[in-house]
Amino acid sequence: MSSLTEKDRPIVQLLLNAGTCPRCILRFCCVGSQMLYRHPHKDLMKDLQDFLKTSEEKEDTVCLDVADPPCKRIRLEHREGGAGDLNHNGAVPQAPQADSGSAAVESSAEKVCNVCLGILQEFCEADFVKKVCQKVNSADYQFTSFVFSVSLPPQLSVRERAAWLGLKQEMRNLGLPLAKDDIVQLKEAYKWIIHPQLSEELGVPTDGKSLFEVSVVFAHPETDEECHFLAIACPDCFKPAKNKQSVFTRMAVIKALEKIKEEDFLKHFPCPPSSPKKLCDALEIQCNNGAVFVAGRYNKYSRNLPQTPWIIDGERKLESSVEELISEHLMAGFKADSFNFSSSGREDVDVRTLGNGRPFAIELVNPRRIRFTAEEMKRLQQAINDSSDKIQVRDLQLVTREAIGRMKEGEEEKTKTYSALIWTDKAIQREDIAFLDDIKELKLDQKTPLRVLHRRPLAVRCRLIHTMRSEYIDEHHFRLHLKTQAGTYIKEFVHGDFGRTKPNIGSLLNRTADILELDVESVDVDWPPTLAD
């Protein structure tokens, strides 16, 4: 177990005199034992008081809980007075006296810590842990483990630097080293203390890879402006960023602290820092579950239903969409905050999707419920299908984030099969369209269609019509079955889009042609896996 030795005596005394809490003192003494930090605040104070009362002549190491093997004692002597011994006020420091420990402890016990601003004091107690757990339990999440995160006020980094510089100066005057890299980080110490308490109260273990996150956001308005001098000393470190209410982010402050010269810091900030009047505030206690992904295939039977909500200039054009008809039931079932819909391509509002359907995936954001059996997924699928005659869903299943990538892999190399009802201005006979059946691997140059130019970049795309099969209806109508490369604009292939698609059915037949109906008959993507009925 980690212990305090004679070389820690001046650190303990100096920090206690400055109003530092016992746990922060352990951090600055580089104590790495997690169990020690979990001891009650009062017990730690008493242990520090006993440590300071220990005679300097005692050779044994003083440990806070169990005795470790003794180490070589470092002599605490003053160096000869000189420029190097002056503190930032020009005074010659004296070695801290052990007999003043009792008064320092009594004073520190009543103060808000000048380094952690109370985070390692009040916010490690059982009352706060219960408050966090009540918030978690009231949110009604399903989880089998959790990861705990904490957001600290950026000025804590400034105060920790000030405390360290004060210690560094004192230790230098005593001829003793102080390595900042060995100081236990506040977040790490806080998690050592609170993790087992949260785990016991919630009844599940902590797991750094858990998808369920419990987070606490701390703030300390009283000291918010303590970072501001850094913006004058290091203006390049503080630049406005999107979605940031303040330029004084934790990372910006840390960057500035790495850049600012020690002497400049000492001019602007007291070392050690003074104790504040108030504790930190726990501004937010939040819960968040990692996203759940659901995949399946949908059929669309309506010629008046868009795939996604159709809104132009803030005005909704149609009352529903494929996306909404599916997601409505999934959102309710998984109790999610929001969703993201994606699919293997998309059809126009007036195009049906038949056959085995179009693959789709939905990301459900921050779901309260995450565990569904295969039978429960079937019931969700049935609920979707019973809610509307415009769509049907099949093969509904839970998938991983990585699996969704298979839906998009090589999307343009996949093939799709269509059925188009075509009208011609001039009368046709069966023999006029028979030659279309013999055309294989027809290459098209398709300039971005006029109807999508507002949302797609202008480009010429090369596409393939693999096969065609014509079905004569009457003198002005025939049906054309096509197997094409994914991404081919079928409507434009029929009417030519004012010459933007070459060749096209109109140019091949040497007459005006237009499309009256279009159906997607198959999307040849082997995902998601087919499920048994």
From TrEMBL:
GO cellular component, one term: mitochondrion
MF (Gene Ontology): metal ion binding; RNA binding; tRNA pseudouridine(55) synthase activity
Statement: the UniProt record of this protein carries the keyword Translocase: no
Residue ranges occupied by any Pus10 N-terminal eukaryotes domain in the UniProt entry: 113-287
GO biological process: tRNA pseudouridine synthesis
Subcellular location: Cytoplasm; Mitochondrion; Nucleus
Any Pfam family the entry gives: Pus10_N_euk
Matching NCBIfam families: pseudo_Pus10arc
Protein name per the record: tRNA pseudouridine synthase Pus10
Native organism: Rhipidura dahli
Gene: Pus10
